Amino acid sequence: MSINQQRRLVLSGLGVMPLVLMGCGKEESLKVHATDITGVNFGREFNLQDATGKRWTLNDFNGKALMMFFGFTQCPDVCPTALARAVEINSLLGKDAERLQVVFVTIDPERDIPEMLAAYTQAFDPGFLGLTGTPEEIAKIAKEFRIYYKKVPTGSSYTMDHSALSYVFDPKGKLRMSVSHQQSAEECAEDIRQLLF
């Protein structure tokens, strides 16, 4: 498009709309390794408890980026790998890691009692937060965040099949990214930095 065509488009009023929308609180899209999900209509709220019984909501993390993962403490590979990656992300962020909160939400509240959940997450990093709730509360948050999970019998016990992705919120509490299990810590840190500045 030539300069004159662009000028005519703006003058006709058709090109004004994107400029107007930018001032209406709409977040700009991101150029990230993760999937940019800015503006989605899910993942808007939660209300779960930590090991002390304190209830946490999304508003409690205002001013910080929030990385949230859903899993269970007896997970043999995906969950510990995700939390180990979060440790590496914090290391790569340096002092900016203070502005990132990592939250691990159990999808197995039957076995992941609060004290066990706290010990599990804090074994990776003392600042990581493990959250749980009643089976009904976990079902509600899984639905709100479009997380799949299912109990799978294994002999006399069971394991959990579940989604293997992390969500990242910006410091204003807006859900911005969906991070695949395959994404590297370096890529994640680079993506998260965009939300911190």
TrEMBL record:
<keyword id="KW-0186">Copper</keyword>
<dbReference type="InterPro" id="IPR036249">
    <property type="entry name" value="Thioredoxin-like_sf"/>
</dbReference>
<feature type="domain" description="Thioredoxin">
    <location>
        <begin position="37"/>
        <end position="197"/>
    </location>
</feature>
<comment type="similarity">
    <text>Belongs to the SCO1/2 family.</text>
</comment>
<dbReference type="InterPro" id="IPR003782">
    <property type="entry name" value="SCO1/SenC"/>
</dbReference>
<dbReference type="Pfam" id="PF02630">
    <property type="entry name" value="SCO1-SenC"/>
</dbReference>
<protein>
    <submittedName>
        <fullName>SCO family protein</fullName>
    </submittedName>
</protein>
<dbReference type="InterPro" id="IPR013766">
    <property type="entry name" value="Thioredoxin_domain"/>
</dbReference>
